[in-house]
Amino acid sequence: MKLSKKDFLSIRDLSRKELDVVLDLCAKQKPLAKQFHLEQTHPGRVLACIFHKPSLRTRLSFEIAMRQLGGSSLFITEAEIKIGSREATKDVAKVLSRYVNGIMIRTFEQQLVEELARYADVPVINGLTDLLHPCQVLGDIFTAIEKLGGIDGKKVVFIGDGNNVARSWLNAAARFDFKFVLAAPEGYQIEDSFVDAVMKDGSPDYEWIPDARRAVRDADVVYTDVWTSMGQEGEKEKRLKAFAGYRVDDDIMKLASASSIFMHCLPAHRGDEVTDSVIDGPHSVVFDEAENRLHIQRAIIALLVRGE
Ligand code: CP
Ligand code: NVA
Predict the structure, then answer these.
(1) Distances in Å between the alpha carbon of 142 and those of 11, 13, 25, 138, 151?
(2) Cα–Cα dist 95/47, whole Å
(3) pLDDT-derived band at 2, boundaries 50, 70, 90
(4) How far, in Å, from the CA of 59 to the mean position of ligand 1?
(5) Cα(265) to centroid(ligand 1), Å
(6) Is ligand 1 within 6 A of the CB of residue 266?
(7) Which of these, 167, 204, 253, 303, is most buried using a 10 Å CB contact count?
(8) Of 53, 55, 62, which is best to mutate to test ligand 1, by the most ligand atoms within 8 angstroms of its C-beta?
(9) What is the pLDDT, as a whole number, of residue 84?
(10) Among 265, 283, 295, 297, which one carries the catalytic annotation?
(11) What's the CA gap between 194 and 209, in Å, rounded?
């Protein structure tokens, strides 16, 4: 099956049926990849990977996924192409489309990714913007399904900043049937304008509850992310104060369901948003999440980038 959109910029780009196609392909390919039996469907294909922010998981998992499919990747930083200043975004999009078969970009503004996608003839994949982190959350949903047997009917509680990862969870709640609760202090919740747009595109079961202890009751998934995201380093001290009381510790985990899983996209700031006892504890699935970034992105590439 082909996906209806050329690009993957947001979880809401895909219908539930299409998201299930990605998840099913991921489940099919994962054991084959682990046994080195994966079919090389993309020989000679090249993915350009543009990074305006640092990365461990996203960079490596996209590069490895391309190699596993028989193709290769190019790592490009701002120092090389200077999109928008050395050259217009649309010209970069057109030139890259003559060289490569797909573009993955991690940058600040979602608008830049959308502009690149508008002018590129090849698929563009969002590897994180200030607004969204769709590959992360789709991989997380795959992990939650593996661990909990499904995501529909579950309660996902995100404790922390209403940031790119949290917004992508809200987007996912518009396509899947789980309850999504954000426990964030006033001023750090997901913006009303974003929530309103999601509400008009699906009917997510969403609640913002500032009280983390109340929010986390009976959660099946307890999720957190850094309090200071890439690009917000100047706000670190202010944020440390604002999020005091939102650390995921053993007391918080005791209020969640006994069979709950703890998730974090990583990198973690141990001792800030999560204690060592939780991230290294029995509920934690953080390294399965990291592994599944590879498997979900390989499925996304396989469905979006033209292969044999
Ligand atoms: N979770 C995630 O995107 O990790 P990186 O920033 O290391 O890519
Ligand atoms: N919210 C974090 C996610 C890192 C994967 C950031 O944007 O830095």
Answers:
(1) 13, 17, 11, 6, 9
(2) 14
(3) confident
(4) 8
(5) 7
(6) yes
(7) 167
(8) 55
(9) 86
(10) 265
(11) 17
Q: If pLDDT is split at 50, 70 and 90, which confidence band does 210 have?
A: very high
Which two tokens mark 61? Answer: 């998992």
Please report the domains of the chain, with CATH numbers, ordered by start residue.
Answer: 11-133+290-304 (3.40.50.1370), 135-286 (3.40.50.1370)
